[in-house]
């Protein structure tokens, strides 16, 4: 469903992604780990279509289409979802209104009829329960005054409502206490196993911590370093990383002598 070939991307003239390759098939979970500053969030932003990032070389094919030519809105409607590392607060826009608008825009793009208010509310309340969120949060402004854990859970709620084909979750586990982590993992697992919309989704899970992978067993683990995937393996790679740290697993810097 997703093929990233030789992706190079820069921000303000700094090359951050330097030839990244990744293939994700429907139903697969790919964990991406890597030291701070290696380009994990840059990858998420480039896939979302963030305007500050310029792709200089390479291609991204999503379900047979050139993703990079689509606008941010088209990508979202086509089924690409990004849960951001730092979810934005949007004062004045209620969470529930936003979800309804987003879902119905997507349905319109796919030439489906809009959900009426009642059906929508029923759907969203089921999803709210799945992530263990307090219902009153639906009626507040998006993320405004939400705790860190509530913001992360709200990202997962958006994902469950929109049922994307490809979900990129950028450090959704960071800043969560153990109970919130379990709920978020539960929500992601429910989504992973849902195929009511036909094809199973592909998931890219950016994380620093093995602990999330205790709850969500990935099919593949990749280490992103200096803008490239330098090592790939199965779940055992994350365990090895936890034991040894990056120093032992990363390519050594070339000697300058
Ligand atoms: P990660 O998510 O792996 O920690 P990022 O993708 O956030 O890494 O960042 C990769 C590199 O890009 C870092 O060195 C960061 O400082 C740089 N970077 C990110 N945003 C900008 C920006 N707006 N301007 C310049 N450099 C940036
Ligand atoms: Mg980081
Ligand atoms: Mg990051």
Low-confidence stretches: none
Question: How many DSSP helices?
Answer: 8
Strand content: 25-35%
CATH class: Alpha Beta
**Tally of extended strands?**
12
The CATH homologous superfamily is called P-loop containing nucleotide triphosphate hydrolases
For the record, the count of structural domains works out to 1
Roughly what is the average pLDDT, rounded to an integer?
Answer: 92
Adjacency order of strands in the biggest sheet: 6-9-10-3-11-12
Order of helices and strands: EEEHEEHEEHHEHEHEHEEH
Question: Which characteristics define this entry?
Answer:
6-stranded mixed sheet, binds adenosine-5'-diphosphate, binds magnesium ion, alpha/beta, globular, Rossmann fold, 257 residues, 8 helices, 35% helix
Write the layout of secondary structure elements.
Elements: E1 2-11, E2 14-24, E3 29-33, H1 40-48, E4 53-62, E5 65-66, H2 72-78, E6 80-83, E7 90-94, H3 95-109, H4 117-130, E8 141-142, H5 148-162, E9 166-170, H6 178-192, E10 202-206, H7 210-215, E11 220-225, E12 228-233, H8 235-244
Parallel strand pairs: 3-10, 3-11, 6-9, 9-10
Antiparallel strand pairs: 1-2, 1-4, 4-5, 7-8, 11-12
The protein binds adenosine-5'-diphosphate (ADP) and magnesium ion (MG) (2 copies).
Keywords: ATP-binding, Nucleotide-binding
Family: Belongs to the ABC transporter superfamily. Ycf16 family.
Protein name: Iron-regulated ABC transporter ATPase subunit SufC
């Amino acid at each position: 469903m997703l093929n990233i070939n030789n992706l190079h991307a820069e921000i303000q003239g700094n090359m951050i992604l330097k030839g990244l390759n990744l293939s994700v098939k429907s139903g697969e979970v790919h964990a991406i780990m890597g030291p701070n500053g290696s380009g994990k969030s840059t990858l998420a932003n480039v896939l979302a279509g963030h305007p500050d990032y310029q792709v200089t070389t390479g291609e991204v094919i999503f379900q047979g289409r050139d993703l990079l030519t689509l606008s941010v809105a088209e990508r979202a409607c086509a089924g690409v979802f990004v849960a951001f590392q730092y979810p934005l607060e949007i004062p004045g826009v209620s969470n529930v209104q936003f979800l309804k608008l987003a879902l119905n825009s997507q349905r319109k793009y796919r030439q489906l009829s809009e959900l009426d208010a009642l059906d929508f509310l029923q759907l969203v309340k089921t999803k709210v329960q799945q992530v263990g969120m307090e219902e009153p949060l639906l009626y507040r402004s998006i993320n405004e005054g939400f705790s860190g854990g509530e913001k992360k859970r709200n990202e997962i709620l958006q994902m469950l409502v929109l049922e994307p084909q490809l979900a990129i979750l950028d450090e959704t586990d960071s800043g969560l206490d153990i109970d919130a982590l379990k709920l978020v993992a539960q929500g992601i697992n429910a989504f992973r196993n849902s195929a009511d919309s036909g094809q199973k989704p592909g998931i890219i899970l950016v994380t620093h911590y093995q602990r999330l992978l205790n709850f969500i067993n990935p099919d593949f683990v990749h280490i992103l370093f200096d803008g490239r995937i330098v090592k790939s393996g199965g779940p055992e790679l994350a365990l090895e990383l936890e034991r040894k740290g990056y120093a032992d697993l990363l390519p050594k810097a070339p000697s300058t002598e």
